[in-house]
Amino acid sequence: MRPLLPVLIVMVKEPRPGRVKTRLGRQIGMVPAAWWFRHQCRALLRQAVDPRWQVALAVSPDAEGRASRVWPAHIPRLPQGRGDLGARMGRLLQGAGPGAPVMIVGADIPGLRRRHIADAFRKLAAADAVIGPAPDGGYWLIGLRHVPPPGLFAGVRWSSADARADTLATMRGLRVAMAETLADVDEAADLPRKLLA
Fold first, then answer.
1. For a Cys-Cys bond, which of 38, 85, 98, 152 suits 15, CB 3.0-4.6 Å?
2. Using an 8 Å Cβ cutoff, are 132 and 180 in contact?
3. Residues 27-51, buried b or exposed e (16+ Cβ, 10 A)?
């Protein structure tokens, strides 16, 4: 029997002005922010698809995302569901079931390349969990080799400089590997310089 392939889940929102990257939108305009996100997602998915792992999109809003023509039709879609980021990621990790390792990434990581994903899966093979740190105290990737532990993400202060430390506190007892540090885009200052020229 062939071993199960690892699973990479990319979290996306429908790229509608005023519904995606709103913090960025308040600085550069909601339409340009939605445009940036749509094109960033397209570029990231070109890096994410690889025969070494399965890729799925976690879409939001659920019904609109599942029916959307924005996303590539050949990539399976999962609903994110309700709740804060921790509740949604917890369900995605739980729903993957036992067996193959699972990693979740955000779609707003301009520096993400296939080699970063492969390296994170390699690290996860020798640990219980992997986190990809972001310079702002958050993280761009989280992965587990087994079913999530009880209380994972409980009390995490999302969108704060404490998000990574809070998440690590809910993973006590797990061997956690660190992937490479990459930056996400929350504000105009985070955008790649070539876009601002």
1. 38
2. yes
3. ebebebbbebbbebbeebbeebbee
pTM, entire model: 0.93
Q: In what order do the strands lie in the sheet with 102-106?
A: 77-79, 54-60, 7-13, 102-106, 139-144, 129-133, 176-178
- DSSP states of 131-193: EEE-TTSSEEEEEESSSPPTTTTTT--TTSTTHHHHHHHTTTTS-EEE-------SSGGGS-H
d(CA 65, CA 79): 8
Spatial neighbors of 51 by CB under 8 A, at least 6 apart, are none
**Cβ atoms of residues 1 and 116 within 8 Å:** no
